[in-house]
């Protein structure tokens, strides 16, 4: 059996599969719990697991975690840790890379980008049927391209990343900085009678459109999938992208392009289950 895991910055989620059949699922807030001990607990519960496949919110190369901004990991060489202690095969890949694998399968294309707007702004790219990874597995880090100066810093150490403007965590930082009620949704900011609220929404919208344009222009996908919590919760954002993406993209790159919203419940988990097919 295969244990698939979505290791995000807020939740750890898992699904246990026997072939295509899902046997069990679960999730836990990852605040303060170690990732390795959490998996070991699952292995005690499900002794029949032969493969562990992880979509991980961080920098991963060849089974080694190189960067983990939001997840506590005591053993970076996690593949070796599990394969040397348990009778399992251990597969791990960046979460957005997993997501785009699942999206490529769903949309049946070899030229696809998945741009997810959640607590971060993440991108997965498949071109010519292969996952784009980069020398240190950092290719496509759209959230950290320079955009404009913010009055606070990003987790990567810079203060001008586009993720500070076009993500859930960035919005939260701006709300705190501007002393705006953190509970206000994007829609409430947009519809508010206060100019300050409308301006924060506009900043978000422009930054997201800019990111969309960069993705289209750099990678020339056949399909651009938008996903993540913010896209799921706010219908208008997707409609706005559809209405305005051409303003931000090289027009030749938009020919034949389809921009769609994800149809998958958990693309990271589904993509993790596909990881073996990469080998
Ligand atoms: Zn950054």
UniProtKB/TrEMBL annotation:
State the Pfam families in the record: ROK
Concerning Gene3D superfamilies, the annotation shows: 3.30.420.40
Q: What SUPFAM superfamilies does UniProt report for this protein, alphabetically?
A: Actin-like ATPase domain (SSF53067)
- The organism sits in which domain of life? Bacteria
Read off the PROSITE patterns from this record: ROK
Similarity annotation: Belongs to the ROK (NagC/XylR) family.
Q: What is this protein called?
A: ROK family protein
